[in-house]
Amino acid sequence: MHRFANPNRFLKLANAILPWSNGVLVVSLLAGLALALVWSPGDYQQGDTVRIMYVHVPAAWMGMFAYVAMAVASAVALIWKHPLADLAGRATAPVGAAFTFVCLVTGALWGKPMWGTWWVWDARLTSMLILLFLYFGYMALHNAFDDPQRGAKAAAVLALVGVVNVPIIKFSVDWWNTLHQPASVVRMDGPAVDPSMLWPLLVMGLAFKAFYVSVVLLRIKAEIADAKIRALRMSEIHG
Amino acid sequence: MTRKKRRLTLIGLGMLLLSAATALVLTAFQDNLVFFYSPSDLQTKPLAADQRFRLGGMVEDGSVVRDGQTIRFTVTDYAATTPVVFSGILPDLFREGQGVVTEGRLNSEGVFQATEVLAKHDENYMPPEVSDALERTGKMPNTMRMPESTSNTGS
């Protein structure tokens, strides 16, 4: 892992991965949208409203995945002081927040016709809202100090503390009774989703994952370029 | 290297304590985190008279009676039942044999007077042809696993 802490080595790796992740993104997104919107059946209870799931569920997965990635990056930044780990955490936060936001909005749009309400304060919905606030807190804390190093440290600690929320989100529907339905895909008895609906969902999940990889790599590249420009300016002033 | 190791143990220990603290808090607030009570809970929980709460369970088959604006039905968790009366607009997914969460008060006759009815969807997703086939062969998954979270805490 230490080998990739070198920015130049990282850039080489990122440039090698990007065309692949972009390719997977385009192919899986087109295939996923076609499968989800056209070539999959409506649900026996929900009809066509079920199609919201193909955006809602992958967005929820990525909202949680991005948070775990951010927490791991924060731990690496705190323990081994890799500057690149801090950049990775910074790059992930807004992307994860966007996924979480999409999850909450699509959930509300589904909830109104199906449940009869946009929002309820049950354990699943509330813990997901807390996840969004944790992302906001991380981003705000990162920029709250004049000394960027102190901001990075404070934000990393917040990211680590907030990671306890991720298992709470996942298991909230099992530990407490909620209005939100229990897990349909990742559960002990295997998926409770018919294969004709599970495949579009998994393809959309892959598309969301590829999007995440591409965007985060691009954002880290931009952060490295930014750091280089700052270093150049500094040397101009002092040189 | 020792400084890094120390930071690693410190963070590891911190995370361990944090998880333990969270687990304790969540266990302590178990009752408050529950979104609704089941009909069985009503028999064991000391609920103040006139207290607003949510009642959840399955709409019992054949129990829905419409009388103009007023709808009467029975909510069951297969162990106990509670009669519910509601007047208003029901959500699309409301039907017999499906999950439901209602909010309101229990009146003196033990009838739950709901001011809001929400449909609860289960975790099963399938096209109509598949559900028809499952109905025919009698292999339809039992749609409502009543979470037993409130009844087994004993607190």
Topology:
The complex is a heterodimer of chains A (239) and B (155).
Chain A: H1 7-37, H2 53-80, H3 83-114, H4 123-142, H5 148-162, H6 165-175, H7 195-238
Helix pairs in contact in A: 1-7, 2-3, 2-4, 2-5, 2-7, 3-4, 3-7, 4-5, 4-6
Chain B: H1 2-28, H2 30-33, H3 39-44, E1 53-59, E2 65-67, E3 70-76, E4 81-87, E5 99-106, E6 112-120, H4 128-137
Parallel strand pairs in B: 4-6
Antiparallel strand pairs in B: 1-3, 1-5, 2-3, 3-4, 5-6
What is the number of strand segments of chain A?
0
| SS strand fraction of chain B | 25-35%
CA distance, first residue to last residue of chain B: 48 Å
CATH architecture of chain A: Up-down Bundle
What count of structural domains of chain A? 1
How can the largest sheet of chain A be summarized?
none
* Rg of chain A (CA only): 20 Å
Protein model, in words:
- The complex is a heterodimer of chains A (239) and B (155).
- With 239 residues, chain A is mainly alpha-helical.
- Chain A has a single domain, classed as Four Helix Bundle (Hemerythrin (Met), subunit A) (Up-down Bundle), CATH 1.20.120.
- Chain A has helices spanning 7-37, 53-80, 83-114, 123-142, 148-162, 165-175, 195-238.
- The longest helix of chain A has 44 residues, at 195-238.
- The mean pLDDT of chain A is 92.
- Chain B has one domain (35-144): Nucleic acid-binding proteins (OB fold (Dihydrolipoamide Acetyltransferase, E2P), Beta Barrel), CATH 2.40.50.140.
- The model of chain B is unreliable at 144-155 (pLDDT under 50).
- Chain B has helices at 2-28, 30-33, 39-44, 128-137; strands at residues 53-59, 65-67, 70-76, 81-87, 99-106, 112-120.
- A 5-stranded mixed beta barrel of chain B has the order 1-3-4-6-5.
- Chain B is α+β, with helices and mostly antiparallel strands.
- Chain B is flat.
- Chain B starts with a helix and ends in an 18-residue tail after the last helix.
- At the A-B interface, helix 2 and helix 6 of A face helix 1, strand 6 and helix 4 of B.
